[in-house]
């Protein structure tokens, strides 16, 4: 493949049947002039506008709740599928009363805010912008609008970061911008903050800036726990490539930025010395102590068997450890070093699938990772369809169980089918990603002549540590052409 060919942006409407068919709705496949960005409407700008438009449609979908569903009648917010934590927690977590998260004790059983520090800061900033006059319902409406505006910025950032991560594949960001499940779940909670920081961190890693990537991953971990999982795939990939300096920088940046955010809230001092603040620790204790919850495989098993599964924490931890070990072996045994986005998707999906809860908004965690790991419209839309079905299923189930004797909604058996559907949808996407790793000739990114566009220092880097079949690479493996790998862990001098 010539250098000019390698620098040419990939046109999904020329390579993907579903993308080509879908483009007919807007006039057919995009032309060369528009694709190369000679007009003001470059791919990145188009994707940002589409992301904002889809987010706005998601806000419109919440209109029945905004007009009273959150406040009058417990089930109307479920029958209209427009539930959001945001207005409920404005009063429920003390923001309406001016309480300071992690420092002021809340009335009731919760005692302290059960969110990580950076998410708490996000929530607090939104409460500062919310006017304190008027009735509580109006203030909750404004609080939701303020948060929605801030989260819309996060949504645009995510789409732009994905579009810029793979330099030759900017249109893959359109998968994120148009994701229906993401639009429906964007304002359920504050997850988009952590997702945006994670996407920005992956963009920095793809540009060979590991320290900046680490800082952003640390900040994302201060907003939600899952981004720290990305350090695992990077460890195995850098091990295989011998890129220890870059890995050291990303870990150092993550640790320092996480501590900068958390230490001021984490440590308290009295006459007896320094202590961990109870309010700061609430998120971690709550995650450990909470029972099995909606959407998880554990709830499905519990409901089907009648077993409360009190040891679900142990089972989930064990499965997570075994799964991470399997991903590590897959990385070292695969014929070509997996792409960073592929492993990032697999480890986060593993965490969600084994977790005690699989909330509908968790689809936001996976959406940008899926677009980078498997930028194939058919597979992406199959998975998104499963998630949309679950999104509808959980609210109809809550309407059924919370509507007294009327039972209007989805019965338990229907909800169990919805759980199984979204679990299988995620497992399906995991399966095709694993297949791409084991059969790199089927990876749509590598088929276009790239190695690992999201890999940064790993892109086209030779291997120094491989196991098994990876010792005999296929001839098309670009990064094996320069230096042959060392077998069974021998380190190259």
From TrEMBL:
Membrane topology, record value: Multi-pass membrane protein
Organism ancestry: Bacteria, Bacillati, Actinomycetota, Actinomycetes, Kitasatosporales
InterPro entries (alphabetical): GT87, UCP010361
Pfam families per the UniProt record, alphabetical: GT87
Example of a GO MF term: hexosyltransferase activity
Subcellular location: Cell membrane
Superkingdom in the source lineage: Bacteria
Transmembrane segment boundaries: 40-60, 142-163, 175-205, 211-239, 314-334, 340-359, 380-398, 418-438
The protein's name: DUF2029 domain-containing protein
Isomerase as UniProt keyword: no
Keywords carried by this UniProt record: Cell membrane, Membrane, Transferase, Transmembrane, Transmembrane helix
Gene Ontology cellular component annotations, sorted alphabetically: plasma membrane
Main location: membrane
Family: Belongs to the glycosyltransferase 87 family.
């Amino acid at each position: 493949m010539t250098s000019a060919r390698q620098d040419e942006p990939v046109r999904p409407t020329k390579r993907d049947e579903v993308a080509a068919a879908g483009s007919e709705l807007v006039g057919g496949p995009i032309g060369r002039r528009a694709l190369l960005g000679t007009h003001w409407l470059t791919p990145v700008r188009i994707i940002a506008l589409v992301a904002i438009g889809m987010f706005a449609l998601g806000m419109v979908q919440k209109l029945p709740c905004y007009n009273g569903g959150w406040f009058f009648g417990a089930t109307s917010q479920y029958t209209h599928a427009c539930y959001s934590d945001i207005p409920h927690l404005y009063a429920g977590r003390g923001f309406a009363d001016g309480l300071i998260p992690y420092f002021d004790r809340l009335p009731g059983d919760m005692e302290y805010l059960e969110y990580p520090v950076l998410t708490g800061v996000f929530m607090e900033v939104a409460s500062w912008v919310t006017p304190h006059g008027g009735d509580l319902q109006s203030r909750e409406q404004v609080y939701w609008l303020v948060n929605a505006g801030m989260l819309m910025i996060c949504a645009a950032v995510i789409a732009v970061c994905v579009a810029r991560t793979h330099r030759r594949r900017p249109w893959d960001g359109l998968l994120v911008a148009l994701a229906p499940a993401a639009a429906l779940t964007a304002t359920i909670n504050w997850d988009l903050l952590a997702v945006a920081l994670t996407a920005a961190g992956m963009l920095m890693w793809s540009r060979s800036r590991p320290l900046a990537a680490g800082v952003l991953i640390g900040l994302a971990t201060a907003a939600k726990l899952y981004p720290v999982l990305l350090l695992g795939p990077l460890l195995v990939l850098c091990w295989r490539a011998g890129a220890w300096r870059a890995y050291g920088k990303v870990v150092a940046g993550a640790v320092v930025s996480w501590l900068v955010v958390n230490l001021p809230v984490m440590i308290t001092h009295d006459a007896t010395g320094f202590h961990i603040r109870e309010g700061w620790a609430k998120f971690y204790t709550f995650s450990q102590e909470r029972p099995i919850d909606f959407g998880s495989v554990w709830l499905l098993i519990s409901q089907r068997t009648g077993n409360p599964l009190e040891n679900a924490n142990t089972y989930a931890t064990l499965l997570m450890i075994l799964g991470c070990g399997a991903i590590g072996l897959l990385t070292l045994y695969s014929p070509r070093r997996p792409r960073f986005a592929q492993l990032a998707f697999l480890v986060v999906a593993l965490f969600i699938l084994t977790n005690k809860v699989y909330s509908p908004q968790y689809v936001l965690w996976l959406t940008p990772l899926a677009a980078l790991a498997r930028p194939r419209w058919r597979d992406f839309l199959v998975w998104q369809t499963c998630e949309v079905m679950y999104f509808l299923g959980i609210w109809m189930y809550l309407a059924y169980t919370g509507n007294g004797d009327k039972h209007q909604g989805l019965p338990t058996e229907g909800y169990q089918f919805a759980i199984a559907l979204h679990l299988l949808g995620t497992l399906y996407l995991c399966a095709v990603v694993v297949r791409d790793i084991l059969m790199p000739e089927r990876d749509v990114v590598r088929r276009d002549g790239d190695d690992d566009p999201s890999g940064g220092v790993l892109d086209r880097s030779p291997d120094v540590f491989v196991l098994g079949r990876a010792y005999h690479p296929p001839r098309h493996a670009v990064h094996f052409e320069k230096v042959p790998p060392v077998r069974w862990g021998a380190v190259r001098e």
